[in-house]
Amino acid sequence: MKKLIFALTVIVASALCGSFCTSAQPAGDWDSTQVFAVRDTQTLSLDFYFPGHWQQSDTLRPCMIFVYGGGFVENNQRSRFYTRFCRAMADNGYVTVASDYRLGLKDFHGGSILKMMEPVRNSISMAAEDLFAALDYVIRNAERLRIDTSKIVICGSSAGAISVLQANYELSNRTAMTADIPADFRLAGVISFSGGVYSTEGACKYKVHDPAPTFFLHGDADRLVPYNKIQLFRKAMLGSKPLAEGFKDAGYPYFFATFTNHSHEVAGFQMEQLDAVMWFLDHYVNKGEQLQIDMEFTDMGHEIGKVYANPQQAYSRGF
């Protein structure tokens, strides 16, 4: 019991974002800010980053909704760390949307293990609910934003990675929080930098329709968001490893990149893994390839660059 609650509550630690989150960018790095919801008296906004010549073209663009990390305590939507990644994605042709969400643990001051459990679970649910509100806004305004709704990808870091994986799980099971999302809508992809799913059913089961192709990036020595799983009866925090294993067994497309002997710093690898992200988007989203790839890396730089520069090498090493 204590191990499970610890796995859920460590995300509130300042170390979760302190190792890679920096000060906010000056206003103007994003192209537009729009309110998408008011919940619990909190105004939630979306920061839009548009590709070059976006307004001069009628071409529909793919879209990435990015969810920041911060332990469900700190708002890092405009962290220099994340704005740089969002701008890079826009430069690669994606209408990129940095999404805010309610911080369920911001005013939580701790307590007994039993008192911690419900706030942490609620924080994950609230973040996923707000992500669906952002997604609903994007879908409803897709024509004005020139977004191709068949190519919407969600991406997150740390607490944001938990949020996007949880959203993929909830959407595939069409739970109540997905009520405003059209029944025929499918996410084109999910990218998780050190995330997991909170389940009350043990292993994750995607019962209504298949989950979106997912790119899991995680360090196998992560002490904050578990790489593996911690479970008590049917309640579990499932990290990237058991999630990827479940995808493999069920035949769902995925890419699982394990960074050996690395901890939670992997949550901040957005720019270091930009080529990898683009490779995933090209093959899984644009080309619709149904790949199942498991890879391990020790080097953050050229080793990975070489692999993604040669897709055939990735295929051969992945199977």
In short:
The chain is 34% helix and 23% strand.
Describe the structure.
With 319 residues, this protein is of the alpha/beta class. The chain has a single domain (2-318), classed as Rossmann fold (3-Layer(aba) Sandwich), CATH 3.40.50. It has helices at 2-9, 15-18, 80-91, 113-140, 142-145, 159-172, 240-250, 274-286, 302-309, 311-318; strands spanning 32-39, 42-49, 61-67, 95-99, 147-157, 189-193, 197-199, 214-219, 229-232, 235-238, 254-259, 292-297. Strands 1-2-4-3-5-6-8-11-12 form a 9-stranded mixed β-sheet, sandwiched between helices. Strand 3 (61-67), helix 3 (80-91) and strand 4 (95-99) form a beta-alpha-beta unit. The termini are far apart.
Give the SSE layout.
Elements: H1 2-9, H2 15-18, E1 32-39, E2 42-49, E3 61-67, H3 80-91, E4 95-99, H4 113-140, H5 142-145, E5 147-157, H6 159-172, E6 189-193, E7 197-199, E8 214-219, E9 229-232, E10 235-238, H7 240-250, E11 254-259, H8 274-286, E12 292-297, H9 302-309, H10 311-318
Parallel strand pairs: 3-4, 3-5, 5-6, 6-8, 8-11, 11-12
Antiparallel strand pairs: 1-2, 2-4, 7-10, 9-10
Helix pairs in contact: 1-4, 4-6
Structural class: alpha/beta
Question: Could you name the CATH class?
Answer: Alpha Beta
Radius of gyration: 18 Å
Oligomer: single chain
String of helices and strands: HHEEEHEHHEHEEEEEHEHEHH
Beta fraction: 15-25%
Indicate the CATH topology: Rossmann fold
**Which segments are poorly predicted (pLDDT under 50) over 5 or more consecutive residues?**
12-27, 315-319
CATH superfamily: Alpha/Beta hydrolase fold, catalytic domain
Q: Care to count the β-strands?
A: 12
- Report the end-to-end length measured between terminal Cα atoms: 37 Å
Shape: globular
For the residues shown, what is the average pLDDT? 85
Q: Based on the coordinates given, report the CATH architecture.
A: 3-Layer(aba) Sandwich
Give the tally of structural domains.
1
Strand order of the largest sheet: 1-2-4-3-5-6-8-11-12
Main β-sheet description: 9 strands, mixed
**What share of the residues lie within helices?**
25-40%
Give the count of helical stretches.
10
